[in-house]
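Operator note (shift B, R.M.): manual run for Solute carrier family 25 member 32 requested after the automated queue skipped it. Running by hand, logging everything below so the morning shift can see what happened. Input copied straight from the record, untouched. If output looks odd, do not overwrite the archive copy; leave it for review.
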Amino acid sequence: MNSTFNYKHFVAGVAGGVTATSILHPLDLIKIRFSVSDGLSSRPQYNSMWDLTKSVWKKQGFRGLYAGVTPNIIGAGMSWGLYFFLYQTIKNQLNRGDASKPLTAFQYLACGIVSGSITLLITNPVWIAKTRLCLQYESQTKIYRGTFHTISSLYKQNGIRGLYKGLVPGLLGTSHGAVQFFVYERLKIWNANRRNVDVGAKMRTADIIAMSAISKITAATSTYPYQVIRARLQEQHRAYKGIWDVIISTWRNEGWKGFYKGLGANLLRVTPACCITFFTYELLMENLPEISTAKT
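Run finished. Output pasted below as returned.
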C-alpha cells in the first residue's frame, strides 16, 4: 500500500495555486477593493466594478492591477499545497488508502474543516499582507513596500495579534473549502459511476472543469458573506471593534446586499481559478513521479 503521506499532493497543489493566481490576480484585486467600499470618504469610491477597473488602469496601468500579487501568489501556493496535502492525508487515513471507498458526508466535511483550519493558522499573516497591499490606493502615499515589510510592520505595531486579524471569520470560512471539496468528491464518484470506471481513473479535461466549476460556485455563493466580513476586518482604512461591529455596521449602512458586495467579480475570478487549480493538480498527480514513502 502507498503511504498516506504522499507529497505529490503538496507539489501539485502549490503548482495549481500559483498558476491560477498568476493569471487571475487582477480580478481578486477588484473583488477586494469593491467589497470594502462602504460609502466612507476615507478611500476612493466606485460606482461599479467596471468603474473601479477603469480607475486603476487609468492611474497605474497594468501594474496597478497586480498590486499585492506577491503575497497572493505566496499565499495561494502555500494554501493550496497544504490544503490538498492535509485533506488527502486525513482522507486516506479514514478510508485506509482505498480511493474506491467513499467517506460519509460528515467525514468529507470534517476533512475540509480540519485541513482548512490548519492551513489558515499557517498562512493568515500572508493573507493580511495581501489585503493591505491590495488596498494601497493609487492616490495615497504607500505605507507598505512589500509582503515581508507589511508583515513585519504589522507585527511591530500590534504584535502577533496584528497578524491574525480576521482569523475567526476565516476559521468560520473553512466551511467554504469543506463544501467545495465535498461537492467535488461526490461529483467524482458520480462521474466514475456514470462512466463505469474506478474513482481513481484518469478524468477527462471537460469533466474536471465542469466538476470544479460546480463545486466552486456552490461553495462561493453559500459562504461569501464571511469573505466580506474578513476583508473589512483586515483593511487599514477603518477600525472595527470586531465581527459583530462589522456585521451591524454593514447591515445598517448597506443592508443584506452589503454582505454580497463584489460577489460577481468573485465568481468571475474564483470559478476559472478553481478550474485552473484543479486541472493543474489532477494533471500533475497523474504525471509526477511517485515520491511517497513505501508503506506495507
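Quick read of the result: The chain has one domain: 8-287. The longest helix spans residues 105-134.
Leaving this for review. - R.M.
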